[in-house]
Amino acid sequence: MKVLHISGPAQGGIARHIQQLQRGLAPLGVNCQVAEPVAAAPGSVLRVYREIKRGQWDLVHCHGFQGGAVGRAAAVMARVPAIVTIHNTLQVVGPARFGARLAESWMRDKTAWWVTVSAYLRNYAWKELGIPEARTAVIANGVQMPAEIPPWQQQPVLGTVARLIPAKGIDIFIRAVQLLRPEIPELRAIIVGDGPEARRLKALTADLGLEGTVEFLGYREDVAEQLKKMAVFVLPTRSEGLGISVLEAMSMGVPVIATAVGGIPELVRHNHTGILVRRDEHGAIARAVRQLLRDRERTEAMRRAAFDNTKRNFSSESMFQRTYSLYQQVVNA
């Protein structure tokens, strides 16, 4: 089976998700290839259409709203079935938001199946986008689990992994570090990821006098290795479909603090597998960090519960099998 993946210019969780599918579905006989990133424009539709015809693909798997608009339009022209994975809520406002909803309405009868990465997004898509319930599947992101829970970092290192965009709330992470540094002089913070907000966030770090404390590592392929350096993982996001970086942290045994938005409460059970805080509250994040670092026995139980829950419910093997079954169902329909 040959599957062409289409997405917008994604470098964060969507990109990592597609890479996972490429690697994990290959042993099942699925040849996954990724087209060049697309923008929602007629020229992109024509380019993808030509690529579909040239490659003789069995299925087009679209990701996100730009990828979904372009990939499905091209697939219709090429008479190839298409599915779309919704990774987050619409991140546009005004006319662009109306246009996205209009495009989704037009594509409703031309889409073989929709996938959402969380129950939260499934319910959002049913209500806000009007997609048919009968052709919707929830296939959560999955992570590759180590055989055993890794050792817990003993040094006070806070970390986050995120695309540097306003929705991820990294400014809140930096302000939480500012609150904590006076009482934890040896505190370090690492930020893994890149994006258009990088310059502004570095300027904020300098303004707050944190240049020797906060380190920007940029985009990294070795996310698991960076997670092992963290004593606490923080995701202060303002919007999240599920939170693959939260899963990755849990798989590495890193205690998690995250905002209770989107699909994150499906991963983090407050005070059991992590700590949930309200969005834009850096003071709450600082208090949670203190709690985790001071009560090591309780935090040890929390990180082990998170590891076990991730292994049981969010393994990459389950994601691969469910995706493969959907591919077969669509291609053989």
List its traits.
Rossmann fold; globular; alpha/beta; 333 residues; six-stranded parallel beta sheet
Q: How many domains make up the 3D coordinates?
A: 2
The whole-angstrom Rg is 20 Å
Give the number of helices: 12
Number of strands: 12
What is the succession of H and E elements?
A: EHEHEHEHEHEEHEHEHEHEEHHH
Fraction of residues in helix: 40-55%
CATH class of the largest domain: Alpha Beta
CATH superfamily of the largest domain: Glycogen Phosphorylase B
Content of β-strand: 15-25%
State the end-to-end distance: 14 Å
User: What is the arithmetic mean of pLDDT?
Assistant: 92
Largest sheet: 6 strands, parallel
- Architecture per CATH nomenclature, i.e. the level-2 architecture of the largest domain: 3-Layer(aba) Sandwich
Structural class: alpha/beta
Strand order of the largest sheet: 2-1-3-4-5-6
**CATH topology call of the largest domain:** Rossmann fold
Pick out the low-confidence regions. Answer: none
Q: Given the C-alpha coordinates, what overall shape results?
A: globular
